[in-house]
Amino acid sequence: MPEPSDDDHEHGAHDHGAHGRVPTRGERWEDFKKSPFLPATVLVFILAAAAGLFAGSYTYTMANPTPHRIPTAVVGAANAEHGGAFLVGMEKALNASLEVHPYDSVAAAVEGVDQQKVFAILDVRQGDRVGLEVSGASGASVAQVLAETAPEVGAGLGVPVTVTDVRPLQKGDPRGLAIFYVSLAAVIIGFVGAIQLSVHARALNPLERIAYTVAYALLGAFVIAAVVDWWLGALDLPFAQSWAILALTMFTSGMVFTMFNTLFGRWAMLPTWGLMVLLGNPSSGGAVSWPLLPSVLGRIGQWLPPGASVNAQHTAVYFGGNQHVFPFLVLTAWALVSCAIFWIWRHRHPGGRATEPAHAGEAAA
Fold it and tell me: What is the pTM of this model?
């Protein structure tokens, strides 16, 4: 057997040293970045932060709602002695301002309620008492705060107060939360559907992806409305209008995720969750009426898809003759912008398939 040469010894020693040496910190970091452990580790911290932000956003807006500015109709002599004192007493008790809107009659003030210009009616025409008509349909939380505060203020002034609900909530929705949860379902299923299309139908081309988003939005919205109205009887919906609002909400939510997926790839869930859930749902006015929300959230919420959906659905169910175009414009604008961004940068979307015909050689193979 031939003896190993000096070159063989040197080569073997070199190989042993290369494989046996401890990797440097830089090499370990490069290996870690290329491994699945980096995104998994990032997700651990992102999910922890998301959990805290989710709980914090809802707790901040819903745990202790405080009125800031409540539009209130006043019928009669607003400057009458007991009327003026009652208004001042209410503002002190609520630690908020009542935004006074004078009306000539209760009927005109009720029309103001139906147009969602005011949340309550204060009737001070009678000299020895005050009539307060709240509107549970306008906002259950606001109506509750006013109904609890007014008798206490009246007792302190020695003025009897009669509280009635001029627009009560439906029997199946005594707390006024059904519309919020219906809209929340449309928002969440909307972007979860887009996520599932990206995972399980990745090869869909842009037009096909939009078409399937329309399809699940229409069918999903129908099922939501049917379950809430026909099966559970929680709400008596104006079915066609409610179905259309839910479908537009689901489509918009799905396309918002698709837009972010085009712009940010696998991290698209972060801006989608932040916009639609952490910011959009607590500020929507569905669980807590906007006069009780922090003022900034109350203003922002109406410009986001969840708030627009709640606004449109709430008006359709309780004030159908006074529907506003604004929430539909908001939803449509978000949907169109999302579709446009997705279409313009569709080559960046992590999906699709080649549409060119295969070469003859490839086909033969």
Answer: 0.81
